[in-house]
Design brief:
six-stranded antiparallel β-sheet; Jelly Rolls; Immunoglobulin-like; 4 domains; mainly beta; 436 residues; rod-shaped; Tumor Necrosis Factor Receptor, subunit A, domain 2
């Protein structure tokens, strides 16, 4: 160790505290502040850089490499890292934290002292140690300090730590080495952190997007298609674009919660008992409509109560309904050529508006079991079935006969019911006239 190195080391660790950062959009390939054992980096020549390990305030090691051969000209001291796996990186970032001595604060070194050092790298698929050949290394940059320290800073125990970050890429081999060239500076390399950026796994618009590595070209975005989360489905194809700095940009499309599920706190939750959701979409579960229920979670439709029904074309949001009650106040008006039947609508329409009426006729003899249907001999105006008004005119009847008419009220769920037909009955003798 040279005199300069000893002079530097005597005061280097006074007050040094390294802050360890964690970034969700960075994948760290190497961080010397996290290595508990020896780094095992190589120096060329052997008496150039010195490896020093000290403990910080949390009793964690600080691996530092230092060189301060400022008294002698023509310095060419190299420090080489171990092989670092590239993993998924296409471009890496090298973050250096270091101190550098102001040459003007060191006497008698005006011709030999430098205030910069050089950073190199070498890509290779081989992880085993190879012989160090400086000519194989590619220069990344010359590194200078924004702030250098002086003898007065040492006396005041002030350490001026510089941070520099350099990009390297595109990377194509399985791994690489870093190398640091000293050409006569007084340097303490306090930490080296190598990482690459990624757009981290995220959930957006009910879709998940995987970790994605940006392209080397910082102006080009990576389009990523999302996958809908559980109990969700695509409305428009969900997409995000991964930017060069590891930020997700330009959200497009989205997923929506499936049938029987609603969005809650970024996920799709089953509808609670008493609620339902019949369609996929960005809507909440709805309370079961009147005369319906759902006892369990995750109902797509509510079941009707006993005696109530849902017609085939009724929407799930519509209340369950039932058949109407019979028509009321059935009357007839008879003259020589026509018989008019009139009635009032039922008191209970069953909760529906599609009310219609059917007319059925029976012609009976003196005995009750002598009845027969008589539709074929009669004409009905406007028609016999599917009446929408509460009146019908009967033509072509026979004089001096007894006719029994049944007026049935119906709606859209009448066919689903097993209850007796709701009818009003009237018997007309065609040998009588007038209104009854």
């Amino acid at each position: 160790m040279s005199f300069g190195n000893r002079f530097l080391l005597a005061s280097l660790f006074l007050g040094i505290v390294l802050t360890r950062f964690s970034h969700c959009n960075q994948v760290v390939l190497l961080d010397t502040t996290s290595v508990l054992g020896e780094l095992g980096w190589k120096t060329y020549p052997i008496n150039g850089w010195d490896a020093i390990t000290e403990m910080d305030e949390q009793n964690r090691p600080i691996h530092t490499f230092q060189v301060c051969n400022v008294m002698e000209p023509n310095q060419n001291n190299w420090l080489r890292s171990n092989w670092v796996s590239r993993q998924a990186a296409q471009k890496i970032y090298v973050e250096l934290r270091f101190t550098l001595r102001d040459c003007n604060s060191i006497p008698w070194v005006s011709g030999t002292c430098k205030e910069t050092f050089n950073l190199f790298y070498h890509e290779t698929d081989e992880a085993h140690v190879v012989k160090f050949k400086p000519q194989q290394y590619t220069k990344i940059d010359t590194i200078a300090a924004d702030e250098s320290f002086t003898q007065m800073d040492l006396g005041d125990r002030i350490l001026k730590l510089n941070t520099e970050v350099r990009e390297v890429g595109p990377m194509t081999k399985k791994g690489f080495y870093l190398a640091f060239q000293d050409i006569g500076a007084c340097i303490a390399l306090v930490s080296v952190r190598i990482y690459y950026k990624k757009c981290p796994f995220t959930l957006r618009n009910l879709a998940s997007f995987p970790d994605t590595v940006p392209r080397v070209d910082s102006s080009s975005l990576v389009e990523v298609r999302g996958a809908c989360i559980d109990h969700a489905e695509e409305k428009d194809t969900p997409k995000l674009f991964c930017g060069a700095d590891g930020d997700w940009l330009v959200p497009l499309g989205r997923c929506v919660c499936s049938v029987a599920y609603e969005e809650f706190d970024g996920s799709c939750s089953a509808c609670q008992p008493g609620f339902f959701k019949a369609y996929a979409g960005n809507i909440n579960c709805s309370k079961c409509p009147p005369h319906s229920f759902s006892y369990g979670e995750g109902a797509a439709i509510c079941r009707c109560e006993t005696g109530f029904f849902r017609a085939e074309k009724d929407p799930p949001s519509m209340a369950c309904t039932r058949p109407p009650s019979p028509p009321r106040n059935l009357l007839f008006n008879l003259n020589d050529t026509s018989l008019m039947l009139e009635w009032s609508p039922p008191s209970d329409t069953g909760g529906r508006r599609d009310l219609t009426y059917n007319v059925q006729c029976k012609r009976c003899g003196p005995e009750p079991d002598q009845c027969q249907f008589c539709e074929e001999e009669l004409r009905y105006l406007p028609r016999q079935l599917g009446l929408t008004n509460a009146t019908v005119t009967v033509m072509d009847f026979t004089a001096h006969a007894n006719y029994t008419f049944e007026i049935e009220s119906l709606n859209g769920v009448s066919e689903m019911s097993s209850f007796p037909r709701p009818v009003a009955i009237i018997t007309v003798s065609t040998d009588q006239g007038g209104e009854c």
